[in-house]
UniProtKB/TrEMBL annotation:
<dbReference type="InterPro" id="IPR050662">
    <property type="entry name" value="Sec-metab_biosynth-thioest"/>
</dbReference>
<dbReference type="InterPro" id="IPR036866">
    <property type="entry name" value="RibonucZ/Hydroxyglut_hydro"/>
</dbReference>
<feature type="domain" description="Metallo-beta-lactamase">
    <location>
        <begin position="38"/>
        <end position="254"/>
    </location>
</feature>
<dbReference type="InterPro" id="IPR036388">
    <property type="entry name" value="WH-like_DNA-bd_sf"/>
</dbReference>
<keyword id="KW-0378">Hydrolase</keyword>
<dbReference type="GO" id="GO:0016787">
    <property type="term" value="F:hydrolase activity"/>
</dbReference>
<dbReference type="Pfam" id="PF00753">
    <property type="entry name" value="Lactamase_B"/>
</dbReference>
<dbReference type="InterPro" id="IPR001279">
    <property type="entry name" value="Metallo-B-lactamas"/>
</dbReference>
<protein>
    <submittedName>
        <fullName>Glyoxylase-like metal-dependent hydrolase (Beta-lactamase superfamily II)</fullName>
    </submittedName>
</protein>
Length: 348
């Protein structure tokens, strides 16, 4: 396997090693049963030193492809000295923990991911416990029942296969020397998760955007074990923060490298402006809960109905609707009242 040019005509998720910039390579790794298809891991090489931005999901096939990719760069899995992870989701974090157990190396993760990591790795936690509570609040009882059937509602025991160990370094905003000849700026960008970070390589004109800025989709908002207040408000604020920085080439976790972070941020901000208006309109047409509103909206670029989505993506859709409605309340465009455990929305 030889490194390919990043402007190759191959689909972004096809296995291989793609040269992004001098010393920077993109290695897409497979995801299981996931519409995203792959996650991009970026290898930064300086002499004999090697660091990875994100690490992939700890799957046998992904490990084999990562090993093959590093071999094309003259390296092995045990040569990775640092894993810098944009956020705590499984497809970004768990391979780093698995490889650290076997070979060493250090893991850096945003400091505000600590509570979610603690909950994910603790005993007695179902994968979607926090989301089930949020769905109750959204009035989505039918969806709650489906999720309990799919993921279980009881407590689970922690096993040695769990890969939710703490990082070696909790990353804080500021400049960090990654390799002897390369510094990255750690920028806190909450929204997708509470502790999501992006990495700015000013010298090379690159921004490793993780799931914060993606080229073709909008990331889920606030999907993590430890919920936080107004995730959409924080996400939009993080987008504006990135927009205020110098423009860079965009190196996303899912999708092809793009020439301008600013161009995509502008599209995402415009999308959420439209989505806020559409979501508010569902309340004007008679919806009162986030679940009822989600049923009236369409989803994905194909404009599917909520019923057209699988159970996991229906959950994300309802939670995203709730995030938009709650932001509209803070903006004074809607009011909200609690009836039991369910939140109801109305025009002012």
């Amino acid at each position: 396997m030889e490194p390919l040019a990043e402007d190759s005509s191959r689909h972004w998720a096809e296995p291989g090693v793609y040269t992004v910039a001098p010393g920077v390579y993109r290695i897409p790794l497979p995801l299981p049963h996931d519409a995203l298809r792959a996650v991009n891991v970026y290898a930064i090489v300086e002499g004999d030193s090697l660091a990875l931005i994100d690490s992939g999901w700890a799957l046998t096939e992904a490990r084999e492809q990562l090993a093959a990719g590093l071999k094309a760069l003259g390296a092995e899995l045990g040569d990775v000295g640092q894993f810098l992870v944009t956020h705590v989701h499984r497809d970004h974090y768990t391979m780093a923990v698995a490889l650290r157990r076997e070979f060493g190396g250090t893991i850096g993760l945003g400091e505000h991911e600590a509570e979610s990591l603690r909950l994910a790795g603790g005993p007695g936690v179902t994968p979607v416990r926090a989301q089930l509570r949020s769905l109750h609040r959204a009035g989505a009882e039918p969806l709650v029942n489906e999720l309990v059937e799919s993921f279980g509602g009881g407590e689970r025991r922690r096993t040695k296969e769990d890969l939710w160990e703490e990082p070696d370094v909790w990353l804080t905003p500021g400049r960090r020397t990654v390799l002897p000849g390369r510094q990255l700026e750690v920028v806190h960008t909450p929204g997708h998760t509470a502790g999501h970070v992006v990495f700015d390589d000013a010298a090379a004109g690159l921004l490793f955007t993780g799931d914060h800025v993606l080229p073709h989709i909008t990331p889920s908002i606030g999907f993590q074990p430890a919920p936080f207040e107004l995730p959409l408000k924080r996400y939009l604020g993080s987008l504006r923060l990135v927009r205020s920085m110098p423009d860079r080439r965009m190196l996303p976790a899912h999708g092809a490298v793009s020439p301008s972070v600013h161009a995509r941020v502008d599209e995402l901000l415009a999308h959420h402006d439209r989505r806020l208006a559409e979501t508010g309109e569902t309340i004007a047409r008679g919806a009162t809960t986030a679940y009822e509103a989600a049923l009236r909206l369409t989803w994905t670029r194909r404009e599917r109905t909520l019923a057209d989505l699988d159970v996991f993506n229906r959950m994300l859709a309802v939670l995203e609707t709730a995030a938009h409605l709650d932001l509209l309340v803070t903006q004074g465009r809607l009011t909200a009242t609690e009836t039991g455990d369910v939140r109801h929305y109305a025009l002012p």
